[in-house]
Amino acid sequence: MELRIEALVKRHGKRLLFDIENLRLPSGGLYGLMGPNGAGKTTLLKMAAGLDKPDYGRILYDGRAWHKGLFTETTYLSQKAYMMNATVEDNVGWPLEVRGVRGLERDKRVRLALERMEIPELSHRKATTLSGGEAQKVALARALVFEPRLLLMDEPAASLDRQATELFESRLMQYHKETGATIILVTHSAEQAQRCCKELLWLQDGRLEISMLQGVNKLHYTR
Amino acid sequence: MDYIADGFKEAFNLLISMDPEVYSVIGLSLVVSTLSALIAGILGTVIGIYTGLKAFRGKRLYARILYTMMGLPPVVVGLLVAILLSRRGPMGSLELIFTPTAMVIAQVILVTPIVTGIVFNVTVKRGREVYELGKTLGGGHVAILGLFLKELKAELLAAFVTGFGRAVSEVGAVMIVGGNIQGHTRVMTTYIAMNNSMGNYAKSIAMAIVLLSLSFLANAFVYHAAGEEN
């Protein structure tokens, strides 16, 4: 899904959060989004997910303004994903059920999603009892199970250990390769951006710039 | 002090004697309070969720007014409803004053802000997360509402039971708009107040026991339904 940002302005009270003139993100890219704390990365991502509104301007999705149907093709994953008060299996199956996928087909796709995240043993656990890392894996399985065309991820690996982060990244890149989905990954890790992304979006002082990934180090980014 | 112990004994005898007046009073109380709590529960849930999720100018002021209304004095509500429904009042032609319907109206006005306030508070704290999850996973309005009710089940049930508790234990409003007419609008609280003033402590204590038992059962139901009992 191609994203085109047109004169996007957002303020928090009197403070200008960002003022992005025009930017085109071609379909099928895996973009890293970085910037200092408070730069507006989460707000921008939520805006792209249809969860927040700009004060001015718009984002076009394949040439069209936001419409409710996009919720079925887009997903947003926060750094601390909310787990429903149900089993892991039911959490991952929920997006399928609302799309009318039920019964054996639903069970098969849920099982496959959990296997890909290497957590089939969690299937019958109550999701609210999972550790932070386990919950993030379930959240990724839940986000990918319905194969969204636009995936917006806000520091999804922040609570993961090294091994889980590697699995997370490899699964993400595999999904990107298989589906050609457009992915925006907010990260504070330049190394993670280097490993996963081809292009980098840098948000600072209200401006958004795009560069090829080797630009990451030139920015002397420090956490 | 003996009269208290005697009161309990007599209360027990009264409860097992199947006194028709006692049971008609209990029955009417349950019908009026349950109906009021149900109507207020639906209204309060819808308004609470909507205003809790919606961002609008003056939301803080709205919250303060709402929380203030949670403590509406029952006699004031009773008085207002009585003025509206009295024979000479603007809705007098409906002939609802001193009927169970008038009692339900008064209790709905009393209980709706309580349910709305609790649901609003829960929605502001947790509702956004649930709503955004439902949206970003592609759920439609019905699916998200279902998710919402499931995720906030314990809090919503607690709000309903709090509303029921308020309705069943309230005396001021139902006394004014119902009139405590025997066999017609007499409920547990007006029965207790009347018998207490007449010195019939046994009857008052008997009804108080029933009232307390009902509160206990309502709470037990909530804990059971919410699946949080240990």
Task: Give an account of the 3D structure.
The complex is a heterodimer of chains A (223) and B (230). Chain A is an alpha/beta fold and 223 residues long. Chain A has a domain at 28-51 and 68-196: P-loop containing nucleotide triphosphate hydrolases (Rossmann fold), CATH 3.40.50.300. Chain A contains seven helices and nine strands. Chain A has helices at 41-48, 88-97, 103-116, 132-144, 162-179, 190-196, 215-218; strands spanning 3-12, 15-25, 30-34, 56-61, 74-77, 150-154, 182-186, 199-204, 207-212. Chain A has a six-stranded mixed β-sheet with strand order 5-6-7-3-8-9, with helices on both faces. A three-stranded antiparallel β-sheet of chain A has the order 2-1-4, with no helix packed on it. In chain A, strand 6 (150-154), helix 5 (162-179) and strand 7 (182-186) form a beta-alpha-beta unit. In chain A, helix 2 (88-97) crosses helix 3 and helix 3 (103-116) packs across helix 4 (132-144). The two termini of chain A are 31 Å apart. Mean pLDDT of chain A is 88; it is low at 215-223. Chain B starts with a helix and ends with a helix. By secondary structure, chain B is mainly alpha-helical. The mean pLDDT of chain B is 89. Chain B has a domain at 31-189: MetI-like (MetI-like fold). Classes of the chains: A alpha/beta (223), B mainly alpha (230). The interface between A and B is medium-sized, with 22 and 14 residues.
